[in-house]
Fold these 2 entries.
Entry 1:
Amino acid sequence: MTTRRTFLHGAAAASLASVHPSFAAAPASRDKHPLIIDALGGIDNMNLPSVRRDDPAADFGIDARSLADAKASGLNAFNMTIGYVFGDADPYEKTLADIKSWNALIQRRSADLLLVRSVADIRRAQNENRIGVILGFQNASMMGKDARRVEVFAKGGVRVVQLTYNGPNQLGDGAMVPANKGLSPFGREVVAELNRNHMLVDLSHSGEQICLDAIGASTSPIIISHTGCRAIADLPRNKTDKELRLVAEKGGFVGIYFMPFLAMGRQPLAADLVAHIEHAIHICGEDHVGIGTDGTVTPIDDMKTYLKGLEDEVRQRRAAGISAPGERPDIVPFLPDLTGRDKFRKLADLLAKRGHSSSRIEKILGTNFLRVADGIWS
């Protein structure tokens, strides 16, 4: 079953080379661009049928167009959700199958993609005009009752593990569980194994208590790969200032998403994203904030058909009990004025116009994630 991210992201924006001249270079010179790392995202073509985007034989919806768009955007690496997230599949078997399929895909498309096991691989992808693929989970249900499975996943190339999705699992409660149970004894075992195997602990989608507990339990910095700030939009998928501050104090990273949860009761826009980034910087400091778009690059061609699919998806998620407040059929899960090949350039421009320095913007676009990952994956 697909994740929430397999929903759209479309429409193009303007070139912003005046703010970052290095962005003006052609794709062949991508090594000269500011480093861009999407802490949670994708590069599939959302115009393809969803069955193709779920099919390893169809390269999970990654086609020539979507690869060209991703490279033109300046993207150097992204955290790709694989494995079990929710649904009826066996979590462990589904996850093992996905690891095998993604490793095979990356090998098959090695001229364009590179499996990321270390920060050196991200730099290599940047220098070789490839895109680094960071394999990550958005649920830890596949651990079953055996925390030693972490080592199996690490050997398969997984580098990021999110402890919960919106609901509960054996580690603790996700953001939509009223009980807000914290990190279970088994959850502490898993966190310890993630630390031992040099994997990033991700607290996106988590309930507040498990987030606070995991920050304390981890001996390494943790990340929240894709979230917003609850002080701006009081929704469960966003994080409180307390959570954000503790992540930063631990030396970690917070990625802000391009999602409906950036605003209350309306379609969010690029200005809302900037507001969340600025609030996160105020709470965490500029060395701990970046982006985790929860989206892809290629724009949608047929918005009418897409919106019909979105209506069905929202209805299905609500029926399954995995929907979060802010998910609505009349609010698209992307930012309409910050999409397509130029979305990262446009974000850089918006931040520059707000007075943020080039060095800070480069931190937000990628080097903050790189620094935290380097300390864990080394």
Entry 2:
Amino acid sequence: MPTSSPGGGERPLYEIKANLFKALAHPARIRVLEILSANAQPTAVSEILAATDIEPTLLSQHLAVLKRHDVVSAERVGNAVYYRLAHPSIRELLVTARSFLADTLKARHQQLEAFDALPPVGNPT
């Protein structure tokens, strides 16, 4: 079903979902979201910088992408800007992604163990 975009045009829901996943499709942004998810309160940009070791200009760009796609929200308090997850389901999405990754890695590990247990192939030397 189409939805209205900020420009007034209609965009299908799958396009909006794809844009959400594009916003998540960078390791630095996932790391930022994990930091925000672990904190019970809004997190200052300075804390995110310290925890990620990302250059300030790059972090600013990553935060802008996340904010543009409504994944995080920001609040300025004096000279500091604080970020938080825009919706609790973002935390759930991160947990689901981590669970999926763990299951995938376990399956690959089991396949590798099965491969290692195969008898040797080839000419004996």
